[in-house]
Amino acid sequence: MSLFLAALRLQLRLAPRSPGTLQVWATAPLFTAVFLSIAEHAHRTDLASFSVVAPTLMGQWALTLGIAGEIIAEERNQGTLEAVIATPGRFSVVVVARILAVSLLGVTTMAEAWLVAGLGFGRWIDVPHPVVLAAALLANAAAMAGTASILSSLFVLMPSARIVQNTLTYPLYLLSGVLVPLSALPAWAGAVGRAVFLSWSADLLRAALDGPAVPRPVTRIAVVALLGLSGYLIGALLLSRVLRRVRRLGTLTHT
Amino acid sequence: MVSTEEYGTARRGASERPADPAAADAIVVEDVGRTFAVRRGRAAGEVTALSGVSLRVARGEVHGLLGPNGAGKTTLCRILTTTLEPTTGSARVLGLDVTRQSRAVRRSIGLVFGGDRGLYGRLSARENLWFWCAMYGLRRSALRARTELLLDRVGLLDRADARVDTFSRGMKQRLHLARGLVGDPRVLILDEPTMGMDPVAALDFRALVAELRAEGRTVLLTTHDMAEAAAVCDRVSLIDRGRLLMTEDTDAVGRLLSGYERVVAHGVSAGLARRVGALTGVVAVRHEADRLEAETERPSATARVLGVLAAAGVHQVSTARPDLAEVYLHLVGRRGMGVT
Amino acid sequence: MYPTAFHLVRYGFLNAVADFKATYTWRSWSFGWLGRMLAQVLFFTGLGRVLDQPGAVRYLALGNALMTCVVDTMAVVATTSGERRAGTLSLLVASPADLMWVFAGRSLHWPLSGFATASAALFGLGPLFGVTWSAAQVAPVLLLIALTALGTYCVGLFLAVLVLNAPRLRNVVSNCAYLAMMAFCGVQVPVEFWPRGVGAAVQAVPLTHTLRALRAVSDGRPAAEVFGPVGAAVLTAGCWLLAAGVTLRWLVAVPARRAGTLDLSY
């Protein structure tokens, strides 16, 4: 646990200074303005929650994807990968903790989006279900970290992973109902989207900001957490393969 | 090897240059100083990279600029290649002022630096040279002909279409040199060109510099490798902490220290070492175990040392002139390489 | 002989093509990049489907399809900044070439890629959302895409020059720039939706005008409603290119040589 917290703290210190974080903070208000303007122009004030949830999830995921892509490459470039592996701690714990730090930091984009809606458009969005919102944000951050840990290993194992990374933004947002609920997608796409934790988080977050009571909040949060946990387990498995490769070959040959 | 006359178009280009043909020196640096603004926490300060540097390099000379990392060598190169303006003083290349006539200077110089950077890694060697030839105003057949000549010259013809990413350090360095030659420059600035090269590649490089000299090009070469400077340079300048300590013929630098000579002997007792140290003309003595190293300031003193050693029955004796390394260490002090 | 502007652009472009070929294969561009860009169009247009507003889907589809070429083209900021990372920037400065023209050629693959992306989006995805084209409309649409790509390229070159000395900001600046265009230039909602000041400011952006022209073509409005915006787009693009050249020479290169921020070996 202390290893987990130490890694988390380290990354929380590093992240605010990285250009990736700066980019997400700078773009989240613009995304919010884009979504809100579409809703406002159509006089659909009821869609304001869409305009806050989507930039939050997109910003968080962009940050998480960024760190997952560089975390192992960075250790390797610095020549610290071997040193980290040689320590008794579980490397997968370090990886997931560092990614979690970044995805938690990404929650701040929700505050940005909320402020943009209020200050820019005069829509001060209520938070009728703060407890559900907080729990959903936490579960979502954890699920993002778990899922992204798969990618951190994948990027090392697959030479062409950078191209895969491209397809993990908009196609994923589209398929997992980040902006528009899955119910608006064709049935087959909706079925695929249900397997992605993001679709559950997006629905939950929107529900927590809308008026009526949130149905089955505990179950839905549990689904997010479970999907995230399975991501972590797959990630840990892949990571052990990467580390075996380091030990066997003395280096990671793929870039 | 390719003679300069084969670079047809560039010769025509040369006649258009407004360079001063009467300038006897290819490079003239007069009292150049350069400071950089730095920020340490909240305090803003200044670091002096160069201070009062004056230097002349004759046409056709291979001049070594020798000094540890951070001495100011690269700063001087940047000023001469017009990528940095001097804070004080002035510099001219082929009679052209580097600040006021920078574009004409760029036409007349070639720049090569060591390390992995400065090439387009995703392009092939040939594509890199095409691009750079175009940057120097070559066109069509002249561009292609120059590219092939240079590839041939640096021995990269058989790998010309491979991506530069896949090249070894030595190959990249040869490509760097070819790149520096695309404009058929009369003056070449080589900034640490052998950095990271393996010894064989470094030897090849020396042969190339000799060719450049034979073609009448002026070369300013920075290095912290004394052996390299001694092997290829006509004259060397020693630079340290932004100041030019001295400029001498490569041989003369050696003479400077030892009219100075050095005698090394084995099987010498401590008492005998003390006697040697007391002789006139002996300036330094080191004695470890039974090994003696004595430095003398003139040949007569060397003869006296040899006489005393022979009389004491010591036969394992050798004399040597110091190499540049020793001159360097004497002048810069024993601060060690790469430490500033 | 000093290299001419045409010559520099041409060889810069050859460099760009080689660079592009090394980054993408035909397959990775189509399935990786193009797929992602089309998904982006679907993503934003999808919001139109839940709006229940007539014409909203069509409006969003047209705007976001043309927008893809802006996203592509903005990569010029990163590519130009890459010259510093590759260590070639100082070599270019030390050469007799005019840096502005080298830069102008060096990233031309991005507007080309953008042209292809937006064409695929407008002609491939458009019909799914009611954006259909007659044979006579194809040529003007292609020309408008090309004009958008090149006009945005001029904006991008200006931004690229601006961040030449602050390479850490390259992605922030290019992303914010295209998102600002996406928000305010009439891509998602008409320019008139925004406050007057914003509406005035976006008149400086070529995309605002090409998009207006494209919508006019799509609606089959009279030619004057197309040519007016086209003229404005050409004019604003020229201004951005000029601004890039002036900024590079007097506000970036000269101060950089004074301050010593053009490094040789790293």
TrEMBL record, chain A:
One of its GO terms (cellular component) is membrane. It is found in: Membrane. GO terms for molecular function: ABC-type transporter activity. Residues 22-208 form the ABC-2 type transporter transmembrane domain. InterPro entries: ABC-2_transporter, ABC2_TM. The chain crosses the membrane at residues 20-39, 99-125, 131-158, 170-197, 217-239. Keywords: Membrane, Transmembrane, Transmembrane helix. This is ABC transporter permease. It comes from Streptomyces galbus.
Automatic annotation (TrEMBL), chain B:
Transmembrane segments: none annotated. The keyword ATP-binding applies. Residues 1-21 are annotated as: Disordered. Residues 27-266 form the ABC transporter domain. It is a peripheral membrane protein. The keyword Cell membrane does not apply. One of its GO terms (molecular function) is ATP hydrolysis activity. It is found in: Cell membrane. One of its GO terms (cellular component) is plasma membrane. InterPro entries: AAA+_ATPase, ABC_transporter-like_ATP-bd, ABC_transporter_ATP-binding, P-loop_NTPase. Coiled coil: none annotated. Its main location: membrane. Belongs to the ABC transporter superfamily. This is ABC transporter ATP-binding protein. It comes from Streptomyces galbus.
TrEMBL record, chain C:
Pfam families: ABC2_membrane. Residues 25-217 form the ABC-2 type transporter transmembrane domain. This is ABC transporter permease. The lineage of its organism: Bacteria, Bacillati, Actinomycetota, Actinomycetes, Kitasatosporales. Keywords: Membrane, Transmembrane, Transmembrane helix. The keyword Transmembrane helix applies. PANTHER family: ABC-TYPE MULTIDRUG TRANSPORT SYSTEM, PERMEASE COMPONENT, NODULATION PROTEIN J. It is found in: Membrane. One of its GO terms (molecular function) is ABC-type transporter activity. The chain crosses the membrane at residues 29-47, 59-80, 115-135, 141-164, 176-194, 230-252. It is a multi-pass membrane protein. It comes from the Bacteria. InterPro entries: ABC2_TM (IPR013525), Nod_factor_ABC_transporter (IPR051784). One of its GO terms (cellular component) is membrane. The keyword Membrane applies.
